[in-house]
Amino acid sequence: MYLFDNFWMHFVVFTAIIIVFVFGMAMGFIYIERRGIGRFQIRQGPNRTGPLGLLQPVADAVKVLLKEDLIPAKGDKFIFWLAPIITFVPVFMIFAVVPFQRGALLADLNIGILYVVAVSSVVSVGVFMAGWSSNNKYALVGAMRDVAQLISYEIPIVLSIVGVVLIAGSLSMVRIVEAQTVPFILLQPLGFLIFFLGSLAEVNRTPFDLVEADSEIVAGYNIEYSGMKFAMFFLAEYCETLALSAIIAIIYLGGWNGPWLPPFLWFLAKVFFVFFLIIWIRSTIPRLRIDQVMAFAWKFLLPMALINLVITGIQVLFWQDVLPWPLIFLNVAIMIVLILLWSRMFKLGGGRVEV
Amino acid sequence: MTLVLSAPEVATKLESHFPDSIVESREESLVVKSESLLDIASFLKAAPEYDFNYLTHITAIDYNSYFEVVYQLTSTVHNNSLVMKVRIDERNNPVMPSMVNLWRGADFQEREIYDLFGIEFEGHPNLKRIFLWEGFPGYPLRKG
Amino acid sequence: MPIKTEPFIINMGPQHPSTHGVFRMRVTLDGEVVTDIEPVIGYLHRGIEKLAEGRTYKQDIPLCDRLDYVCSMTNDLAYCMTVEKLAGVLVPERAEYIRVIMAELQRIVNHLIAVGAFINDLGAFVTPFMYMFREREKIVDLFEMVSGQRLLYNYMRFGGVSHDLPEEFLPALKKFIDKMPGFIEEYDQLLAENEIVLARAKGVGILSRDLALDISASGPVLRASGVDWDIRKADPYSIYDSFAFDIPTGNAGDSYDRYWVRMQEIRQSVRIIKQAIKQVPAGKVCTPVPLRLRPPAGEAYARIESPKGELGFYLVSDNSPKPYRFHIRAPSLINLTALRDMIVGWKLADAIIIFGSIDVTMAEVDR
Predict the structure, then answer these.
(1) What gap in Å lies between CA A287 and CA A271, rounded to an integer?
(2) Which residues numbered 214-233 in C keep a CB inside 8 Å of some CB on B?
(3) Rounded to whole angstroms, how far apart are CA atoms C215 and A304?
(4) Strand, coil or helix: B4
(5) Between vectors from CA A155 to CA C349 and to CA C125, what angle results, nearest 5°?
(6) In a domain, C17, yes or no
(7) Which one of C27, C127, C133 makes the best mutation probe of the A interface by having the most chain A beta carbons within 10 Å?
(8) CB contact under 8 A, A42 and C130
(9) C46 contacts C367 by C-beta, under 8 angstroms
(10) C36 belongs to a structural domain
C-alpha cells in the first residue's frame, strides 16, 4: 500500500522526505540534547547563536566543514577515507522501512525488521576500520572495545524483536504497527527493557559509552578524525539514535496509533519521548567498564531475552484469543520477578588480576 | 597531643644498644652518625616502647660546610614523635643509606632530595630525578 | 599453546582530560589489564622552595597560596602557624575562631570538588560536578566577602588574619550552613547507593592498612584504610580541642571508602562550623608583627590537617628576614607513593578512577 501509485514518484518524494527528515531531526536532536543536558545540570545550554541558541547546530555544522582535514601519515589512507562512509550509510538505510503513517514509507518490505537488524550490524565494520587505519593506540583500543560491545548486544536485541514478531505474526513494520491494538510495551515489558538497553549499547550512549569515554581514552576510535569525516561519525551516532528511537516507537509504542492528532505527529511525539529518555539517562548515570558491559550482555540480557522468548512463545501458542489485560499483568509480574531473582545471582565480574 | 620525645633521653637509651653512634643530642633533635643510621632506625621502628611506624617527612638542609638530612618519625600507637638528623660533610659526593626498606614513604622524598641537593641514597630502588629532567645541570637547592 | 603477546605501553600524557592537572603515567597493558605503571611528575615544578628563600617571611604568604590552589586558606594557615611557632607570636582568640571557620569551609570546598571530579571520572558527564559547584559558588562568595578573592585568598597573617569579618558574613554563613545538610542528603541519595558507582568503585584500588601507614599516607586516604589518625584530634592545633566532632573511618581502603570518608567529613565540617559560629568572641583579629620579621635562629615544624592530608611546613631561620630553608611536607606527593600498588592488576578504566580517588593536586606534588 503506497501513498502514490506511480512507483518513481513515490520513490523520489520519499527519498527527499527521508533525507530532509533525517538531517533536520538530527540537527534538532543535537540542539535538544545540549539544552536538555544543560537544564539537567542547572545551567542553560547554548543560548548565544540565534534566539535561544537555535542556530547552534548550524554553527556546529559550519565549524566542522571549515576545519582542516588531517590524515595520519602512516595510516591506511584508503580505509581511513572509507570508514566514515561505511559507518554512516547503513544508518541512513534503516530509514527506508520506517513508516510515518500507513503507507508513508519508502519501501514496505515484508522482511522489514530483519532488514533493519542486518543493516545496522554493518556499522561495527566501519568502526573497526576507523580504529585500525588511524595508526594510533588509543584508537585501536577504542575500536576493539566498540566492536566487542556492538556484537555482544546484537543478540539480546534480535531475541527481543523475535518476541514482538511472534505476537504480530509478521516481519513487516507496517503489519507490526497494525497489530498493536494494545501497545506491545505492555505485552512485552521485559522485551522492551532489553531492547532499550541493547540499543543504548548499539549507539554507544551512556552508560555504555566507554568507547568515547573522553575521560579515559580520549574519544576512542575517532581520535584522529577531524573536519567533515568527524562530522560523519558524529552524525552517524545521532542518526542511529534517531533510527533506534523510531524503531522502538514502532515496535513497542504503537507507531502512528493514537486519538485525535494526525498519525505522523503521534509518531514524532513517540520518537521524541524515547529520545528524551535517552538524554535523561545520559545526564544522570555514570558509565560501566568494558568487562562489566560484556558481563551484563552475556550473563544478564541474553538469558532474560531467551526466557522472554519462551514465555512469549507459550502465550502465543496457547492463549491466542485471551483478552490482553490478564496477559499484561502476568507479563509485568513475570518481568519483575525475573529481574529481582536474576540480579541476586548476577555478579558483575571483573576484579583484580594477579600479575 | 603528640608528645615530642626528649632527645637526650632517647640518646641515652640508644647509646646502650649502639655505642658511639650519637653525635649530639640537643633538646629536640638527635644527631646520629650516618654509618649507624640504618641500625638505629630499625631499632626505633621495631622496639615496642618506641614503635615509630610512620615516617612524617624527610628533608635536607645545606649549611655551607655540611649537609644535614632531617627525619621526623611518628608513632601512631603511642602518639610520640622524634626528630633525627644526620650530617654529611662530603660536598662533592654525599652518600647516605636509604630508608625505603623500613618506610616506603621515603621513596619519593629521597628522590626529591637527590634531585634538588644531589645527595645519593644507597639502596634506593629507583634513584632518578623526580621533578627536573634527566640531564639538568647542577642541584638547585644547594646554597651558592 | 599460549598465544604470544607483547606488552603494550600507553602514555596517559600530561595533557589528558582526566588526570587532575599535569600528571603523566606510562601504563603497560596486557590486553585491558594494567601490569605496570610508572608515574612521571614534575611538569608543574616552579621551585617554590628556592623562591621562598629569596623573599621575606611575609612575602612568602602569597607563595603558599599557590601550592595547592584548591585549598589555599589551609596552606596559609599552616605556614602562618609555623612562623608563629618559630617567632613565638600569640594569636588572639577571635582570630583563632575565624581561622577555624575558614579552614573548615575550605575543607568543604575541597571535598566537593574532589567528589565531583571523582564521579566525573566515572563518567556521569559532569552532572554531579555541576551540582557540587553550585555549593562551591556559595562558599566562594563568602570568601570573597572577607578577602576580596575567589581562589587565592592571601588571608592569614602572622598573629591572626588580615581583615575582620564584615557584618554580613555571619548571617550569610548561618544561612548557608543551615541549608548544607539538605544538599549533602541530596548527593547521598543520588550517588551513595547508585549501582554503577558501587560496581565501579567498591573493592577497586585497595590500599591496605599496613601499606597506608608504611607509605606515610595521611588525610582521607589513610582514614579510608582504617587508621584513625587525624591531626585535629591527635595533635590538636589552634582551638580544635574545644569542638566536638567525629573522625569518619572506612574499613576496606577501596575507592568507594575514600569517597564515602570525604562525604562524611563534609558533614563533620558543617558540625564544627555550627559550633564555631555560636562561640565566636569579639576582639582583635591580629597581633601586630614587624613587617620584616626576624625570628630567632632555630627551626620549627608545624602541621595541620589539610583537606588532602597532613600539610606541614619545616622552616629553618638564621635570624635574617628571609628563611634559610623552607620545606613543604606535601601530602599529595606522599599519598602518591602507593599508586603502583593500587593500580597494578586492575583495568585501564580503573586506573583513572583510582588516581582520582586519591585526590591529588599536582601543584602541591610538584611545588
Answers:
(1) 24
(2) 214-217, 227, 229
(3) 47
(4) strand
(5) 35
(6) no
(7) C127
(8) yes
(9) yes
(10) no
For the record, the C-alpha cell of C295 comes out as: 625570628
Please indicate, yes or no, if residue C130 is contained in any of the structural domains: yes
Strands (DSSP E) found in chain A? none
**Structural domain of residue C92, as residue ranges?**
47-366
Residues A174-196, buried b or exposed e (16+ Cβ, 10 A)?
bbbbbbbebbbbbbbbbbbbbbb
Q: How far apart are CA B52 and CA B73, in angstroms?
A: 6
For residue A245 the three cell numbers come to 528511537
Residues of C in contact with B132 (CB under 8 A): 42, 45
- Beta carbons of A163 and A233 less than 8 angstroms apart: no
Question: CATH says B3-97 is which class?
Answer: alpha beta
Per residue in A231-272, pLDDT (tens digit) is: 888 888 888 888 888 888 888 887 777 777 777 788 888 888
Q: Is the pLDDT of residue A135 over 70?
A: yes
Distance CA B113, CA C44 (A): 17
Closest CA–CA distance from residue C349 to any residue of chain A (Å): 7
Domains held by chain C: number: 1
C146 lies in a domain?
yes
Nearest CA in chain A to C342: A352
Q: What integer pLDDT is reported at residue B89 of this predicted model?
A: 84
What's at B35, amino acid-wise? E
- Positive or negative torsion for Cα C206, C210, C213, C214: negative
Cβ distance A122 to A90 under 8 Å?
A: yes
Q: Show the cell assigned to B72.
A: 621526623
Q: Is A76 left (phi over 0), alpha (psi -120 to 50) or beta?
A: beta
Helices A77-94 and A228-251, interaxial angle, to 10°? Answer: 30
Q: Mention every residue, 6+ apart, whose C-beta is less than 8 A from residue C142.
A: C105, C169, C172, C173, C176
Measured N-to-C along each axis, helices C255-279 and C348-358 cross at an angle, to the nearest 10 degrees, of 20
Query: What are the grid coordinates assigned to A99, written together?
Result: 513508516
For C148, residues 6+ apart whose C-beta sits below 8 A from its C-beta are: none
DSSP H helix total and E strand total for chain A: 14, 0
User: How far apart, in whole angstroms, are the C-alpha atoms of residue C79 and residue C301?
Assistant: 10
Residue A105 has φ and ψ, to the nearest 5°, of: -150, 160
ipTM of predicted assembly, 2 dp: 0.89
- Of residues C41, C49, C337, nearest to B141 (C-beta): C49
Please report how many Cα atoms fall inside a 13 Å half-sphere around the Cα of residue A314, on the Cβ side: 8
Chains C+A touching (3+ CB pairs under 8 Å): yes
Task: Show which subunits contact C, needing at least 3 CB pairs below 8 angstroms.
Answer: A, B
Measure Cα distances from A192 to A121, A159, A163, A249, A333 in Å.
20, 11, 10, 11, 14
| Torsions phi, psi for C298 (to 5 deg) | 155, -165
Q: Report pLDDT digits (tens) over C278-327.
A: 888 888 888 888 888 888 888 888 889 999 988 999 999 888 888 888 99
Could you tell me if C196 and A281 are in contact, meaning their C-beta atoms sit under 8 angstroms apart?
Answer: no
Backbone phi, psi, residue C28, to 5°: -100, 125
C319: left (phi over 0), alpha (psi -120 to 50) or beta: left
CATH code, domain with C198: 1.10.645.10
pTM, full prediction: 0.85
Amino acid in position A124? S
DSSP for C146-172, written as a single string: HHS-SS----EETTEESSPPPTTHHHH
What is d(CA C259, CA C245) in angstroms, rounded to the nearest whole number?
Answer: 19
- Nearest CA to C221 out of C241, C194, C248, C185 is that of C248
Query: What is the tens place of the pLDDT at every residue in A159-203?
Result: 988 888 888 888 888 888 888 877 888 888 888 989 999 888 888
Contact between A340 and A332 under an 8 Å Cβ cutoff? The reply is: no
